[in-house]
Write a structure and sequence with these properties.
heterodimer; A: 109 residues; mainly beta; five-stranded antiparallel beta sheet; 11 strands; 0% helix; B: 116 residues; four-stranded antiparallel beta sheet; globular
Chain lengths: 109, 116
């Protein structure tokens, strides 16, 4: 089963612009994580935000979590062509990660 | 960060044969490993959770006799796709965690399985 729904499913922007991806989830979670996947490759962990946190930063990444709305957002600032990838949110309740559908981000130079 | 090695990265097999995929944690002991399946342009679907020395827990709809999981040690889990059919063609990814709650997962590079 899938935990989250990402919005938008696809996003195309120019280098230097900001990219915002949203994720909604269905069940209670201990934390929400964001991962990145380049085409045909494994996943790379980006950031983890716990259920008692509201906002977290890591470099050009900013993640928010609203447990009352069961939603999260990932903001990538000053995007680069190398940010082109698919981005997934994943809720962790227990040990397993349940993934959302993902957002495909294309950054053109 | 921790490294998870998945092998092979690509495999082509004939219908009716079995294929084994290995997932190894190289520099840490994985208390739990997970197997996911990903269809083209889709998200990851959790297939099963395995703990070292115990039987895997399969998600609803996943055939345990079709997808055999063995977690023989704290650094190795294997997924065997038995009697493979073309519909089993997919991208299979493993992941491992070192602890319980609030820990990031480390992913293998994935295995592209094509059944002809």
């Amino acid at each position: 089963s899938q935990q989250g729904e990402e919005d938008p499913q696809a996003l195309s922007i120019q280098e230097g612009e900001n990219a915002t991806m949203n994720c909604s989830y269905k069940t209670s979670i201990n934390n929400l994580q964001w991962y990145r996947q380049n085409s045909g490759r494994g996943l790379v962990h980006l950031i983890l935000i716990r259920s008692n946190e509201r906002e977290k930063h890591s470099g050009r990444l900013r993640v928010t979590l609203d447990t009352s709305k069961k939603s999260s957002s990932l903001l990538i600032t000053a995007s680069r062509a190398a940010d082109t990838a698919s981005y997934f949110c994943a809720g962790q309740a227990g040990t397993a990660l349940i993934f959302g559908k993902g957002t495909t981000l294309s950054v053109s130079s | 960060g921790a490294v998870v090695s998945q092998h092979p990265s690509r495999v082509i097999c004939k219908s009716g044969t079995s294929v084994k995929i290995e997932c190894r944690s190289l520099d840490f002991q994985a208390t739990t490993m997970f197997w996911y399946r990903q269809f083209p342009k889709k998200s990851l679907m959790l297939m099963a959770t395995s703990n070292e020395g115990s039987k895997a827990t399969y998600e609803q709809g996943v055939e345990k006799d079709k997808f055999l999981i063995n977690h023989a040690s704290l650094t190795l889990s294997t997924l065997t796709v038995t009697s493979a059919h073309p519909e089993d063609s997919s991208f299979y990814i493993c992941s491992a965690i070192t602890g319980g709650l609030n820990t990031e997962a480390f992913f293998g590079q994935g295995t592209r399985l094509t059944v002809v």
